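Subject: sequence -> structure tokens, single chain

Hey, anyone have a minute? Need the predicted structure for the following. Not urgent.
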Amino acid sequence: MITIQSIDHFIETCKHLGLIVVHFYADWAEQCKVLKNVFEELEKDSGLNHVLFLEIEAETHPTIAAQYKVLAAPTIIYLMGGKQVDRVDGVYTREIVEKVRLHAALADDLGNLQPSQMTTKPVAPRNPETKEELNARLRRLITAAPVMLFMKGDPNTPKCGFSRQIVNILNEHNADYRTFDILEDEAVRQGLKEFSDWPTYPQLYVNGDLVGGLDIVKEMVDSGELQSLLPKKQSLEDRLKRLINEADIMVFMKGSKDSPKCGFSRQTMDILKETGLPFSTFDILADEEVRQGLKTFSDWPTYPQVYVKGSLIGGLDIIKELKELGELTSSLKGES
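Reply:
Had a minute. Here:
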């Protein structure tokens, strides 16, 4: 993993033609250390040897961070040909890894990707592929995400009735899936028919295995099998539950640990740092959905909010009170 030392270093490194994954990190954030380990493992994957992994300390390089509108660490930016094609804000390891594999597969080593929330346009290879190379690319594509749909068009603009119907079914089941537009890549369109021994489209894959086309999916809807087969998009409640459990002590605040953006958050940071206990923070200013949703979830209308092992302790007033009673450290350790 390459650590960026300066703006010039970053510009020079970005001349790499393949996929570049940029990890904006904060040295004090435990979440960033976890992601660093994840990226180091991905670097060992021979199927990703054309992907370049960079790390940039956001606070040390604010100009670069501002260029990509980085508001909190960790933030992951995906670049192709010097242009941003995707991003992930926060510690969503599964999503981060999926997007690395998806963009690496669709990029096919070189090219320019078009960003999209639900789908990414494929890039045709520069040189004609051998059958072995095409099959290797197809294997990467069908495993680029847990659920891959090969269709005509994309989820927002299906270009045939069968594709439209299967997209509607997946959306009705709140499925978390990615798509590939076969009309954009004739080699994939023809090659996948032989590779999968399935002559028509759309084709739905789950964990790299062919489920089938529209008729099979309809049968699975009728039998109730599809519901359990498809991973679901994460609800806000599930996301909040994961966030409050990301560290033993989690603080939802305005700003970051070292740069609070309100007086209450600053006071809370000062008090928690005095305890010497490790804790992580989440900047609610960077995510309005979390900012509003957590108020309802916790039934606590203000910020900051301090959680210990997933349970709400309270805000600044409660933290001050616990400190005065001499109970703060034990409470933060979950001992009382």
